[in-house]
Amino acid sequence: MTERSSIIVAPSLLAADFSRLGEEIASIARAPWLHLDVMDGHFVPNISFGPPVIAALRKHTDAKFDVHLMIDPVDPYLEATAKAGADHITVHVENAPHLHRSLQTIRALGCRPGVAICPATPAVALSEVMDLVDIILVMTVNPGFGGQSFLDSQLAKIRTLAEMIRKSGREIILAVDGGIDPQTAPRVVEAGATMLVAGSAIFGKEDRDAAIRALEGPFVEQTPG
């Protein structure tokens, strides 16, 4: 028997050393997912990278590419993101005026569709797309920069969304992104999160494997190994 976390930990590439991304990805081989923040300097106050970088990174890892599109407009870039190697594509409820269609398009492109929700947006905004999403991403900081402090106010939203997922009867991943570290991780998991996105808490440590284990914490189950 081996221990495997029941919580998905997805290192956020935004906190990595961009001058040696291949090495940085190799250092987080324990993680099954890699979170990729695409930012345009318009929807959020920062610019990161786009499909060409995602495509270049794809050859360096078998990890699932969890791409978070913080861009506006978003729909024109869904196909390019999928072709670059994304496994999951998450759009924001705040920047997808036709969210239902956007999520359908993502699935039609062969990717798992996700929707992100900013701190000021209520959980009810997702009530009409619960049948379409595979991933819900709760932002526990205002999007655009890494290294921000966790917003305690979002714990109630996580609980509400966890209950909405339960009532939907679907296996929807409830992810949390922003200020996640070994201190905040147990709190969001207790509230119902099943996936943790973390940047500096992983890439800011010398031993990345240990950092990922610290976030997985006590949330483990016994599985055949």
Automatic annotation (TrEMBL):
The gene is rpe. Pfam families: Ribul_P_3_epim. This is Ribulose-phosphate 3-epimerase. Pathway: Carbohydrate degradation. Keywords: Carbohydrate metabolism, Isomerase, Metal-binding. A divalent metal cation binds at H35, D37, H68, D177. Belongs to the ribulose-phosphate 3-epimerase family. NCBIfam families: PRK05581.1-4 (NF004076), rpe (TIGR01163). HAMAP family: RPE (MF_02227). It is an enzyme of class 5 (isomerase). Its EC number is 5.1.3.1. Catalyzes the reversible epimerization of D-ribulose 5-phosphate to D-xylulose 5-phosphate. The lineage of its organism: Bacteria, Pseudomonadati, Pseudomonadota, Alphaproteobacteria, Acetobacterales. GO terms for molecular function: D-ribulose-phosphate 3-epimerase activity. The keyword Repressor does not apply.
